[in-house]
Known about the structure:
Layout: H1 59-77, H2 82-94, E1 103-105, E2 108-113, E3 122-126, H3 128-131, E4 139-143, H4 144-151, E5 155-162, E6 169-176, E7 182-188, E8 193-194, E9 200-204, E10 207-212, E11 215-219, E12 235-240, E13 249-253, E14 260-268, E15 271-281, E16 284-291, E17 294-297, E18 305-309, E19 312-316, E20 321-323, E21 326-328, E22 333-337, H5 338-342, E23 349-352, E24 358-365, E25 369-376, E26 379-388, E27 391-397, E28 404-409, E29 417-423, E30 430-435, E31 438-446, E32 456-464, E33 470-478, E34 489-492, H6 507-514, E35 519-523, H7 533-537, H8 545-560, E36 569-574, H9 576-587, E37 594-598, H10 617-620, H11 626-633, E38 649-655, H12 664-675, E39 681-685, H13 696-714
Parallel strand pairs: 34-35, 34-36, 36-37, 37-38, 38-39
Antiparallel strand pairs: 1-2, 2-3, 3-4, 5-6, 6-7, 7-8, 7-9, 10-11, 11-12, 12-13, 14-15, 15-16, 16-17, 18-19, 19-22, 20-21, 22-23, 24-25, 25-26, 26-27, 28-29, 29-30, 30-31, 32-33, 33-35
Helix pairs in contact: 2-6, 2-13, 6-13
Amino acid sequence: MRxxxxxxxxxxxxxxxxxxxTTPATPVIEPTPVTTTPPPPPxxxxxxxxxxxxxxxxxxxxxxxxxxxxxxxQELEATSGFAALxxxxxxxxxxxxxxxxxxxxxxRLYNFWKDEANPRGLWRRTTLAxxxxxxxxxxxxxxxxxxxxxxxxxxxxxxxxxxxPTYQRCLISLSRGGADADVVREFDTVTKQFVxxxxxxxxxxxxxxxxxxxxxTVGTDFGPGSLTDSGYPxxxxxxxxxxxxxxxxxxxxxEKSDVAVFAYREWDHGRVRDxxxxxxxxxxxxxxxxxxxxxxxxxxPDDASSGTxxxxxxxxLRSAWTVGTRTWPAGALLITPLxxxxxxKREFTMLFTPGRNTSLESYTATRSAxxxxxxxxxxxxxxxxxxxxxxxxxxxxxxxAVAAVGVSAYDADVSDDYWVTExxxxxxxxxxxxxxxxxxxxxxxxxxxxxDARDIVSTQxxxxxxxxxxxPYFQIARKGLALxxxxxxxxxxxxxxxxxxxxxxxxxxxxxxxxxxxxxxxANIRGGGEYGPAWHQAALKHDRQRAYDDFIAVxxxxxxxxxxxxxxxxxxxxxxxxxxxxxxxxxxxxxFGAIVCQVPLLDMKRYHKLLAGASWxxxxxxxxxxxxxxxxxxxxxxxxxxxxxxxxRTLFTTSTRDDRVHPGHARKxxxxxxxxxxxxxxxxxxxxxxxxxxDNKQAAYMHALTYAFFAKxxxxxxxxxxLREPASASEPGVEGSP
Length: 738
């Protein structure tokens, strides 16, 4: 399985927190049929006076940005311990002891690496035998810092697509300053040079894939009418080497209202298949098997994801699917022979059966087996599925009871090896190599201990939302936490796009907050994927208020349990989580002491007209439709700002180079709040894309701003505990079960 694709690579950014549970519990999964009562919609607004701030690179807008940046930097850089925290975070991000995650291309493992000496990064390679050593010997393939200096460009790595089976030729994607748009160039991994006269595309939101050495499929900006309303390619062409792009042959055209088009070739256990299709919405795909000029549509539900492995078709359901007399449940993972499915047979095996407190997180395939990662009350469980003469055999793979576990194939065509990562909020990541035929795994690498977690524990709690649904959340705090309301606490949330916030080692939060005595909390609100499609769909479109009610319920539960109080409760979220922050700001300003709102959506009247916004109408609705706007208007933060209200002090952060969520959202919100006399801060990184930072130095600075702001507003001491690495930190290269 050389190319396993479930749809276009277009997604929102899940913002940065996750944490582990310790106490299992069973929430109410299905929302009870209670009608929520959000605030009434605002009156019709006059023309937007701040539209000029949507001019991303305009002189007037950037002058305004620099003025806001200067004020924020002056205040936050002057806070106690800011420089020390910034430097410590940068040391963490640049640490040479971090795990160099790698992917196999034939006999070599490739890794992209950034550190102090290589801020933009090295694309490098080694062998598996050498990778198993404590300090592998790496061969540099491409140095982005050197390339950027030579070309006077601020290149940011966007990845490489290499041609099976030799992997000598790769299509390398490079972004200016971290934007989603990139340039594509053909590269030779033997000569370690870009191919003169090879395939090359100018800057656009490109989608390219190899067919053979002399042919690629291309989705790009071909000129007027070639992009969807979301700004992604709607036309895919087949481009032959040595011919101009204008001569490329169109093989599929999507609708202008679609999200995007896609095409690719997959290599699967010696077989070759070509696929082409479209994404009518963020959550739907139409997929065709391409044989020459003939397209055969895959007869699956539009909202189901699909993939193939060893002549098997796998289908992941987002909604229940009735086939004949059998109804397969939403959230199920089904498998059947591809030839049987194409012949009209609908006899499936259910590799994952959704339960009341379980959901499918991911799956991967080796040469002879499929591994499925399930979530049980947001804790990872891994199962191995193998074919036998009588069907599929399911076996539990050993893993820690409370952890986040990730599994991915090493080389699905030729190997039964697979990578395994394990970590919790207080335990750094361990990377191991497993094998389908062995119970034990070879531990390869372990991330350093970046903060003192000896006295820190994580617990899982459940808050009751407005409609009676039980909402899980994770609390990470010191043992024996005094429940007197005195502890500065940061609550993180996302709640959208079926994205789950699962346990994970947070070196930034640990060093910047936990060590200093603060509490971190992660809310698993509806809209996410923690309990499968129903958990997501419960807060979709007109039901979105449920996600906001859930987050409010968690905040109120923290106060009711005396973990913290309003003056010491801060909240943070980015992207869709930034929208969540804006709603909390406008709906419950009295509940929070401080807010950090990162790369946010905030103007839901115009979000679908800004950059990639139209691709998210499947999540939020269409503001141009009266019934959808009536729902959106009830919570759209920009339209719900009111005079005479004191809002909690807020730090808004975004990026000029974010071409996914328009920086105009944050700019206009800040301008309007300043007009209302509010005291707030704003910082816009001129680079960085949707992630907010283009390199480790920028990331360390941005995170230091966030935690300095919270420390000042919530009253956290700048004292840092002495870091002592616990004796349990393991050596890499040890055979055995972790």
